Amino acid sequence: MNSRTVADLLSQDITIPEVEIKGWVRTFRANRFIALNDGSTLQNIQCVVDFENFDEALLKKITTGAAIHVKGELVESLGKGQKVEIQVESLEILGESDPETYPIQPKKHSLEFLREQAHLRTRTNTFSAVMRLRSALSFAIHKYFNENGFYYMHTPIITGSDAEGAGEMFKVTNLDLDNVPKNDEGKTDYTKDFFGKETNLTVSGQLEAETYAMSLGKVYTFGPTFRAENSNTSRHLAEFWMIEPEVAFMDLPGNMDLAEDFMKYVLKYVLENNAEDLEFLDNRLQDEDKRKPQAERNPMTLIEKLKFVTDNNFMRVSYTEAIDILRNSKPNKKKKFQYLIEEWGTDLQSEHERFLVEKHFKCPVILFDYPANIKAFYMRLNDDGKTVRAMDILFPGIGEIVGGAQREERLEVLKQKMAAINIPEDELWWYLDLRKFGTAVHSGFGLGFERLVMFVTGMTNIRDVIPYPRTPQNAEF
Ligand code: 4AD
Ligand code: MG
């Protein structure tokens, strides 16, 4: 007897005398029709029970959420919306589910409520679709790099360096916090720590990825990264996953080409392979839109938006050009919305980014050549002495999705930049070594994985695209 998934069974055109399936009951109607889901697809398979043939006590246990094992015949279905169904011959309850206390009822729950039920929320269509897409995107990412000659590198999670130089790190220590040893200056003595120095959770694998790019040529990391920034927004997590390719002998325009090609590839992949989940999420958004005033509705459906990105070039605009556009744009007085930026050299706020992407260019935008003072120390200084070869990619509805740069490959310039922000040379001696021994132009970027999943699924809160979101107020699970 074949054990298959619901997805397999639903794709059958033929009747099969003996099949079996295990899954969780979504609904049980009229003491006769079980809608069974096993996570392999959004669809449920209908299992038809002739109640005369079954014990009443057993039927009572077929409740929403229960795990069951069904055996029977796969037959053509006369019901609407399904080609086949299972005529149940035997049924076993694997795990009961008390209908009084099971939190996931067969009705629409709010996303906020489901966030509190993170361990059960993938039993709903919305979250199972989102998480299947998350899995498919991960696969597509590895596939892209594999097909393009990149090596997958595992960068460390515990590290002594601050890759972004922004001081947003979670400390890692095994010191007894009730008895923290102090040095002569009264400061915590990390030499008494297990690692003999201050260590933290990585904010980015970039610096280590650079070392491997400078020997293996093309590498990427894809792993968890951590930021101790206290930002409670719908786009920030304390723990998020980042994809970071790094390539030797590649300059900034090459970096832009790589990022654009890569992002188009993974979007095409899910459009081709995950149509069912995408259509479901698309309909969900369109239903939501219907309840909104016209002005707030999405100009494109989810799938149209994904296709738009795969079929059109990203707009490449320098920071200086972007500032000019913002300066010359009319602030929306009615909404008291200021797009205006007074000074060259200030960082763009998310409202500026949104204006550029959603109102002005109406397509993904790659902003490059940012002022040096608002970007990280490792970025290649341009000949103007003021700007660096940085690039941020901005996406509609998301804002910044990618941050990257051509790296500073000149030893002296890098040392000066580190000194300017008090990064001791002996902390990054190995990073400086790369500039001493066979230095060369190289570049890379970091794509925030959850922001990509948000874009693909249309979910508007980052907490809804990662299984167990870590945010300043939430680490319950
Ligand atoms: O712009 P960021 O900070 O760049 C870096 O970390 C570089 N070292 C990457 C590189 O060049 N290899 O972060 C890269 C991306 C952002 O564009 C954003 O998509 C995402 O990571 N990101 C976050 N996502 C969720 N929550 C946060 N707190 C995030 N911070 C950054
Ligand atoms: Mg950034």
UniProtKB/TrEMBL annotation:
Signal peptide positions are none
- PROSITE patterns from the UniProt entry: AA_TRNA_LIGASE_II
Q: Which Gene3D superfamilies match?
A: Bira Bifunctional Protein, Domain 2, Nucleic acid-binding proteins
Q: Name one GO molecular function term.
A: asparagine-tRNA ligase activity
**Principal subcellular localisation of the protein:** cytoplasm
Protein location: Cytoplasm
Q: What is its EC number?
A: 6.1.1.22
| Boundaries of every Aminoacyl-transfer RNA synthetases class-II family profile domain copy | 131-467
Q: Which UniProt keywords apply?
A: Aminoacyl-tRNA synthetase, ATP-binding, Coiled coil, Cytoplasm, Ligase, Nucleotide-binding, Protein biosynthesis
The record's annotation in CDD domains points to: AsxRS_core (cd00776), EcAsnRS_like_N (cd04318)
Q: Which HAMAP family match?
A: Asn_tRNA_synth (MF_00534)
Subunit-structure text: Homodimer.
Q: Give the family, as the similarity comment puts it.
A: Belongs to the class-II aminoacyl-tRNA synthetase family.
UniProt-recorded name of the protein: Asparagine--tRNA ligase
Specify the species: Gaetbulibacter aestuarii
Name the gene for this chain. Answer: asnS
